[in-house]
């Protein structure tokens, strides 16, 4: 019998040892995931028990009326004592539980919020947000809780202290009560990670809520939070707001403190990150900014300019001179997106404002050379380190390119250029840069910003009306359509404040017109984008409202004007007509016909907990089902 040589035995033993170590390492990761999911489940149980106790002690409290109050009115009632703190708090804990059960948007219940509630009752009415329950994105530090960014390796590493934003919120009387889900790394506008899984859009469960502040979008869009906080590094506040039919403001990068907030790509300066609020209406955003732009914010973080909220600018009624464009000539807008801008433009003109066409140029250069190249300036090295052992399919293209040597990226870019120019640009933008090249890139961005502002000033503009990508894509599509961030990423590169306001819904006519959609490049991405837009009748579509740096109050004033005009126009119209509701429910449950929709909804109810069913009885979805029953669907 032939004996294997010692070298072969050593290699075999080493390989076996490596496999064993890798198995143990992965087993450790999945053990951490299991524990995190158990904590998430316990959080939901704690929420259910807390609300059940409250309901037993206060059976006559009308939670529906509390949940229907806009934030400014709710805040006034809390301040004057006409609405008890615990009534508001447990109304939102209960509603948040329902939306979490439906959409998987909450990662953790902050149980210390109940302690803060009791202390607030004892200390009295302090702060503009006294007694207001607020939700917090995963990546924003709350003392004693993880900020995972969707990475398993970040589990069981609780923050040592609150972020500055959370500290100021607490000092203003707000009560942070839940943390919400994000996509892994935050570099995505979907909302899925290996720890907590996929978050769903509350308007249609087959659609993404957007990202990376997707948990916030789903929770607020479903009515489970009246005010939430997220971050934006390419559209991460604006995508969820647009996809879930709510409002948001991405401020200038340093208008609000980012101390204690973890970014997806640490250190890069090309694409500016911002932290901002999300809410159902613009007035709520304004109240939030009033509360945050205070001495506490400026003292806790001296890098934040001491600029209090400018009430005079926000409350002005002077006519505005508004630039606008319908397309950036890079991502072809859906018919609904184009119509949203045109209809909003007409409303603004009818109200006495002046609308001026604005011509965008070189957006493709901004996307690839400023945004992609800026984020991956190191060739993707830091990106690879983050994803070691935790690869998500939504970033496989970037992961594969990041692993490739520079020469291969260059060759791929050269070969693909005549056939797939956008892939060619992505490959080229992910090559490693020297320090000199990074400095040159930053200089280019500064020069582009100066030219953009010069064009703005030449037209004597106050603000800008822009398209916002939408409607909400199907689950998984954002990972295939990373190039579609052009409408939002532009204003991160420029570092301009930008807000989102929902203005319309997809119609049957939009859906019919979509059949002719081809895109500007007519490549695989354009064909995929057309598929992502389809089957969206009844879903919300928004516009972006943009101002120059440090002019958040003017941006909010413009957003408020748009919101007011749209509400006035729709005052006599039902927001969701019967066909849109039926189409949405049918698509969401993957069935056809009223009877099948009705059965599917009943099965969905039966799969929920007893308390969630009680909450659903107070929800829009339940009211829709009652209507179906009246029409003979059951």
From TrEMBL:
Where does the signal peptide begin and end? Answer: none
Pfam families this protein is in? Answer: Amidase
EC number per UniProt:
3.5.1.99
Q: Which family does it belong to?
A: Belongs to the amidase family.
Reaction catalysis annotation: (6Z)-octadecenamide + H2O = (6Z)-octadecenoate + NH4(+); (5Z,8Z,11Z,14Z)-eicosatetraenamide + H2O = (5Z,8Z,11Z,14Z)-eicosatetraenoate + NH4(+); (9Z)-octadecenoate + glycine = N-(9Z-octadecenoyl)glycine + H2O; 1-O-methyl-(5Z,8Z,11Z,14Z)-eicosatetraenoate + H2O = methanol + (5Z,8Z,11Z,14Z)-eicosatetraenoate + H(+)
Cross-referenced InterPro entries:
Amidase_CS (IPR020556), Amidase_dom (IPR023631), AS_sf (IPR036928), Endocannabinoid_amidase (IPR052096)
What are the leading ranks of the lineage?
Eukaryota, Metazoa, Chordata, Craniata, Vertebrata
Which GO molecular function annotations are given, in alphabetical order? amidase activity; fatty acid amide hydrolase activity
User: Domain named Amidase: which ranges?
Assistant: 91-556
What is the name of the protein in this document? Fatty-acid amide hydrolase 1
EC class (word): hydrolase
Specify the superkingdom.
Eukaryota
Swiss-Prot/TrEMBL keywords: Hydrolase, Lipid degradation, Lipid metabolism, Phosphoprotein
The GO biological-process annotations, alphabetized, read as: fatty acid catabolic process
Keyword Hydrolase carried by entry: yes
């Amino acid at each position: 019998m032939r004996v294997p040589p010692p070298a072969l035995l050593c290699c075999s033993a080493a390989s076996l040892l490596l496999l064993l170590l890798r198995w143990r390492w992965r087993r450790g990761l999945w053990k951490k995931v299991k524990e995190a999911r158990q904590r998430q489940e316990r959080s939901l149980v704690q929420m259910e028990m807390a609300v059940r106790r409250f309901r037993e002690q206060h059976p006559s409290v009308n939670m529906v009326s509390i949940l229907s109050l806009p934030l400014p009115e709710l805040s006034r009632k809390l301040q004057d004592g006409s609405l008890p703190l615990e009534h508001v708090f447990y109304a939102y804990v209960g509603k948040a539980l329902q939306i979490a059960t439906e959409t998987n948007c909450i990662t953790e219940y902050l149980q210390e919020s109940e302690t803060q509630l009791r202390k607030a009752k004892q200390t009295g009415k302090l702060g503009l947000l006294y007694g207001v329950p607020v939700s917090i994105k995963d990546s924003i530090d709350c003392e004693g809780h993880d900020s995972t960014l969707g990475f398993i390796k970040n589990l069981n590493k609780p923050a040592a202290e609150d972020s500055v934003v959370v500290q100021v919120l607490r000092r203003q009387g707000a009560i942070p009560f839940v943390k919400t889900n994000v996509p892994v790394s935050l570099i995505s506008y979907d909302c899925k990670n290996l720890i907590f899984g996929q978050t769903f859009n509350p308007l249609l469960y087959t659609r993404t809520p957007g990202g990376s502040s997707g948990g916030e979008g789903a929770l607020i869009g479903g009515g489970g939070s009246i005010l939430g906080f997220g971050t934006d590094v390419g559209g991460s506040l604006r995508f969820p707001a647009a996809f879930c039919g709510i409002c948001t403001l991405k401020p200038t990068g340093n208008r609000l403190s980012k101390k204690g907030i973890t970014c997806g790509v640490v250190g890069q300066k090309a694409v500016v990150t911002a932290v901002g609020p999300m809410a159902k209406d613009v007035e709520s955003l304004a109240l939030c900014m009033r509360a945050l732009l205070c001495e506490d914010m400026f003292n806790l973080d001296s890098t934040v300019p001491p600029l209090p909220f400018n009430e005079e600018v926000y409350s002005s009624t002077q006519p505005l001179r508004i630039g606008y464009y319908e397309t950036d000539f890079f991502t072809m807008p859906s018919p609904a997106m184009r119509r949203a801008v045109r209809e909003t433009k007409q409303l603004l003109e009818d109200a006495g404002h002046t609308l001026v066409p604005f011509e965008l140029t070189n957006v493709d250069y901004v996307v690839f050379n400023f945004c992609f190249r800026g984020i991956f300036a190191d060739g993707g090295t830091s990106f690879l380190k983050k994803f070691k052992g935790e690869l998500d399919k939504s970033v496989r293209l970037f992961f594969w390119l990041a692993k490739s040597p520079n020469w291969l990226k260059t060759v791929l870019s050269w070969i693909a250029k005549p056939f797939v120019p956008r892939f060619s640009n992505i490959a080229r933008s992910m090559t490693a840069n020297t320090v000199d090249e990074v400095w040159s890139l930053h200089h280019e961005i500064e020069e582009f910003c100066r030219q953009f502002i010069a064009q703005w000033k030449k037209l004597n503009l106050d603000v800008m009306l822009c398209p916002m990508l939408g409607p909400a894509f199907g689950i998984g599509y954002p990972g295939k359509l990373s190039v579609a961030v052009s409408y939002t990423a532009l204003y991160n590169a420029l570092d301009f404040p930008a807000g989102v306001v929902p203005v319309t819904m997809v119609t049957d006519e939009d859906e019919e017109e979509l059949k002719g959609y081809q895109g500007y490049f007519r490549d695989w991405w354009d064909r995929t984008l057309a598929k992502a837009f389809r089957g969206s009748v009844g879903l919300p579509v928004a516009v972006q409202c943009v101002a120059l740096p440090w002019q958040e109050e003017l941006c909010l004033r413009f957003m408020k004007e748009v919101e007011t005009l749209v509400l006035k126009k729709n005052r006599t119209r039902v927001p969701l007509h019967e066909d849109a509701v039926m189409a949405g429910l049918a698509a969401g449950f993957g069935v056809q016909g009223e009877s099948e929709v009705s059965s599917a909804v009943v099965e969905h109810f039966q799969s929920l907990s007893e308390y969630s069913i009680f909450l659903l009885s107070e929800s829009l979805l339940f009211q829709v089902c009652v209507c179906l029953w009246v029409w003979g669907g059951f």
